[in-house]
Specification:
mainly alpha; 14 helices; Beta-lactamase_Reg; single chain; membrane; globular; transmembrane helix
């Protein structure tokens, strides 16, 4: 049933994303209000946030366990579908990317920047001093957002159940929305521990779903590096797996200057297609694991 539950939740979530509906960000923001007040000098503490995300994860896991204990495990599956639909998703991205590609096509880079600047981490908004850097920043943010809101949750749901899925999604929310900004870098460090295995599995999947020879030339060193950050691995792996310089705007502009106006749309389309194919590989792999009786 794990495959059926995840597949239903994934299809529903994709449909909701296409119409920009049902985001869990506001739910987490409201839940985190409990951590809005801390003692002076303790702004960088992380334990209160970890406890706040651990509580709903534990309650959900216990609820599923109790239902299974009394022979009502089937009753938990609709609830798991609902929770996964809430935990996954990147609503709003499509509504930002489409106008961005149109502005890029027109050559209005200032308008393109204003359309997507809120999608980027605060630390990188000032780095986009050129169209190339702006586009790479957006591509990295898209890869990271989809990884955190789909692949990371899928991995931990299969490995640890719905409780783990809630907990890792809560960790991601802590890195973005925790009221005490001083603690967010520490939450990022904690999140990196939970990213370590799934991001490397996704990197390998990029090679399978994309250009394997290009991936072998670029990404095999990245996934072997213990200290490589999640965003670095995603960018290196995607760049190696995509053809046509989809994530190398400087090189593309040199080789195909006449097609520069279409680069923004072509590049993001290639990234989205790679992510979609990679999720299909994960779903097929999960199906094989279910058939083999592993999960």
């Amino acid at each position: 049933m794990i495959l059926v539950v995840f597949l239903i939740a994934y299809l529903v979530r994709r449909r909701l994303d296409s119409v920009n509906a049902v985001s869990s960000d506001e739910l987490w923001r409201r839940w985190f209000r409990q951590g809005s007040v801390v003692k002076a000098g303790h702004e960088s503490g992380i334990w209160s946030g970890l406890i706040i995300v651990f509580v709903p994860a534990l309650l959900m896991a216990l609820g599923v366990y109790v239902l299974a204990l009394y022979g009502w495990r089937l009753a938990a599956y609709p609830l798991e579908i609902l929770v996964l639909v809430l935990m996954m998703g990147t609503p709003g991205w499509r509504q930002s990317v489409e106008p961005y590609t149109q502005a890029w096509h027109k050559g209005d880079m200032q308008a393109a920047w204003h359309l997507i600047q809120e999608r980027l981490p605060a630390s990188e908004r000032g780095a986009a001093v050129s169209p190339e850097l702006m586009h790479l920043s957006l591509s990295k943010a898209l890869l990271l957002s989809v990884f955190h809101r789909f692949f990371l949750i899928a991995f931990w749901y299969v490995v640890g159940g719905i409780g783990f899925a809630i907990f890792v999604r809560g960790l991601v929310a802590l890195t973005e929305q925790w009221p005490q900004a001083a603690a967010r870098p520490r939450y990022v460090a904690v999140c990196e521990w939970f990213n370590w295995i799934p991001v490397r599995l996704l990197s390998i999947t990029f090679g399978i779903a994309g250009d394997l020879s290009g991936w072998l030339g670029e990404a095999k060193v990245a996934i072997a590096g213990i200290t490589k950050k999640t965003s670095e691995i995603l960018m290196i792996s995607a760049n190696g797996s995509l053809t046509g310089y989809a994530l190398d705007p400087a090189r593309f502009s040199q080789i195909h200057p006449d097609e520069w106006a279409n680069y923004g749309g072509r590049s993001l389309s290639a990234v989205r297609d790679l992510l979609n194919r990679s999720m299909l590989v994960w779903i097929c792999t999960l199906a094989l694991l279910v058939i083999a009786g592993v999960v």
